Amino acid sequence: MSSGTVTTVSSNGTYSFTKPNREGITLLAGLGVEGDVHAGVTVKHRSRVAQDPTQPNLRQVHLIHAELFEDVAGAGFEVAPGDLGENVTTRGIDLLGLPTGTRLHLGAEAVVEVTGLRNPCAQIDNFQHGLLKQVLGRDENGEIVRKAGIMAVVLTGGQVRPGDPIRVELPEGPHRPLEKV
């Protein structure tokens, strides 16, 4: 079982690509981040609402690893926590390598279940031209590799603050790799 740390938390009550950093956020079971525009039982991302507004919201909480910011900095991009719209920035966990159904215990109470990979969109290039290519690549087999974080649903609510520990609870096997949600 691995562990890591919450470095930053962010939320925004209005539709905007970036999310301001906060001193803390409250996760609400079955909904997401209290006061965040993407919180809810059904989908809140505009493109998904247009497809089918009754779909379950598998994207209640967006998590990104801080190590990604260091990787893109090497290519000349400056990205800070909250800039890519994530709610929780982590350090010390290979988020992209987690299997579907992994539970992340954030702080003393909150538990989220990983539903899949964030599918990076063109808005990332609107934020910084060329950045999309840094967070969306291909592996040696030509398969798409999504690096812009993971999505989760809230199982148990609670407060989450920078500095909180993260405990990883892997699901029973066999493990299913993350797919875009």
From TrEMBL:
Molecular-function annotations in GO: catalytic activity; molybdenum ion binding; pyridoxal phosphate binding
SUPFAM superfamilies in the record: PK beta-barrel domain-like (SSF50800)
Domain MOSC: 20-169
Signal peptide: none
Domain of life per record: Bacteria
Any single Pfam family the record assigns to this protein: MOSC
Name this protein carries in UniProt: MOSC domain-containing protein
Organism: Streptomyces venezuelae (strain ATCC 10712 / CBS 650.69 / DSM 40230 / JCM 4526 / NBRC 13096 / PD 04745)
